[in-house]
Amino acid sequence: MRQDQSTDRKLVKKVLEGNSNAFKTIVVNTQGLVVQIIYKMIKNQEDREDLAQEVFLKAYNKLGSFKFNSKLSTWIGTITYNTCLNFLDRKKIPILNIVDEDGSESWDLIDKKIPGYSNSQVESYLFRKEKHQIITSAIENLPPLYQTLITLYHNQELSYKEIGEITNLPEGTLKNYLYRARKQLKNNLLHKYKREDL
Amino acid sequence: MKNKHLTDSEIQQFAFDKAECKKEVVEHISSCSLCKQRVEAYLLLSTSIKSIPDPALGFDLSNRVMMQFDTTSKKKTLLDYFVYAFIILSITVVGFCIAYFSSVFINWFKGNSTVSMAFLICIALSILMILIIDIMKSHSRKMKMLKF
Ligand SMILES: [Zn+2]
Q: Cα dihedral sign for B134, B137, B143, B147?
């Protein structure tokens, strides 16, 4: 963390002095996070490509105002999230669809609907044998915000603090959303399994 | 209450935020194989998500971004040259016209009163002013557009 900070400072200083290669290093170091957020928030490939470039042009222009209160990557993650948010807002696409939340306990649902199959059989089959593609498409069925939170937590392995900084959500809300996101994802997978394999 | 299985949130809390779990939850899981399985299912789900390959754009993003910086700065200087060339050209053309037609103008003005001559000069000057202001405005607007 401390080392990250001093690397960030050195890189930012170089960019502000006019060294464009230093900015290229910043792009290379942070593009993984930027692309992950964009892919989860935005569906259209052309829009994703445009937004990825827009994010780094914004970061370049705002770099002088970066105060080192967070990691540089987190700061660029925030720019990415806000850029996507503005884009979705312009297109009137909601980032969270509260209507399709499932209130019931999904475990009970499976118990009732698949008689003859015990919980353990269903679960172990489901979660061990899921292919990347099936999980990916189940994640894609979540609202953009849930997809983003799942990715930041499980793929980017960011802390709650960092995810909170990027999405501007308090920790309690964030955890609550993550619980709901995983539950909805699990339900999507269980329903898919039930349709295709039983 | 003790016989009831844990809720989904409690299961997830045990799987991902164990430090925050209530004592009862930890105790229940240690003695209930069903809830333990549910925790394991979530942990497996987490592992499966982690193993999904990262998405990638179909092009080198860093090169594309750097290229955009280059073309933008080139565009900027080109536009600068164009605007200055245009201003110099218009001044030259106006100057040439004045020099060429001055004799015609002088003869024409001689036939008119000084009042109407002053009136004509005023109109000419204001048209020139409007044109210059318009050029400056569009120039600064284009500059702003290029600064993203
Ligand atoms: Zn139990």
A: negative
